[in-house]
Amino acid sequence: MRWSRARAAGTMRRVDHGFPDHARRSTEMRAAFIERTGPPEVIQLGDLPDPSPAPHEVLVQVRAAAVNPIDTYVRSGAVAMPLPLPFVVGCDLAGEVVAVGEAASGLRIGDRVWGSNQGLLGRQGTCAERAAVDARWLYPTPACVSDRDAAAAALVGITAHLGLVTHAGLQAGETIFVSGGSGGVGTMVVQIAKRLGARVIATASGEVAAARVAAFGADQVIDRRALSPAPDALARAVLATSPGGVDVVWETLREPDLDAAVTMLADRGRIVLMAGREARPAFPVGPFYVKQASLKGFVMFKASWQEQTAAAADLARWMTAGLRAPIGVVLPLAETAAAHRLQEQGTIGRTGGLAGKIVIEP
What is the C-alpha to C-alpha distance for residues 91 and 328, in angstroms, rounded to an integer? Predict the structure, then answer.
């Protein structure tokens, strides 16, 4: 994507340049961007030049974007990445192709598309009216799926698919335990695992969250708030429903209890880790190797475009059949900073107040 530097100033305020709306739209777009890393207040709303797609890119009119924990880590500087400034925040998007680069293939003007992996590794993000995206990272949106739902499912759906299929190799008839089944990724893991033919045991915190997880298809839901404070309470609860142990443990929490995870594993079981960047938990070496277990760690945005395209093909089929990422709140582009605060409260502050994805509609 090629940009000249935007004329923008100030923090946490709307930046305008006095153009009539029709004039602005012919040359510029509204975007939520940063000029330095920091708290949510560094996000500005202002005008940036329209992206000019490179030969292998297409220009997408963004109808919906979604907020993920990684967005807040990049914005805050907690995860160091190259940031072309001004830097538009956001990974996920859904919208309509409005221009096609001369070397881009497979997409035409007017196509509805969805995708993720933007706003990372030096790529500009999606919380803007338009985004120039490498055609390899975009996928056709099923006719029965709204842009809002496609954007909400993008990163969390691809993450769940990569972990279950590529890394854990979950098979029909196996049993999976999902720690944190009511979160953004957890809800997709539960739904996809059921579609793969697995038996699903999941945790949630509180009766309301537990009911939601059961509605997503979990066979058994363990309410963490109802467990005794004993260190082995969770492992005992899982083994009570699956006496032979589980084949896969999917950990979504930032501070994993690996002792409990290994305890509940069946022989040759697999543990999947996809969170907890700063975590340094104790590891039960003895029980782990005696069970001939394996530990799978992965980062979604490091997966190749081929791997993500394969995941997207299954997701499109499943979305057509009803797979959805639950949406907790929909906000306008002007509220992107508020969306980041809300995401941080749920992810880092662990307030539990966020039930579903945050969607931004430019």
Answer: 18
Q: What is the extent of the structural domain holding 233?
A: 156-300
Tell me the CATH number at 219: 3.90.180.10
pTM of the model: 0.91
Q: Tokens representing 147?
A: 């842009």
Question: Using one digit for the tens of pLDDT, what is the confidence trace for 66-77?
Answer: 999 999 999 999
Confidence of residue 279 (pLDDT cuts 50, 70, 90): confident
Summarize pLDDT for 28-66 with one digit per residue, the tens. Answer: 999 999 999 999 999 999 999 999 999 999 999 999 999
Amino acid at 254: R
**Residues 295 and 333 both lie in one domain:** no
In 3D, which of 312, 46, 31 has the Cα closest to residue 166? 312
Tell me the C-alpha distance between 16 and 294, whole Å.
54
Which residues, 6+ apart, have CB-to-CB distance to 25 below 8 Å? none
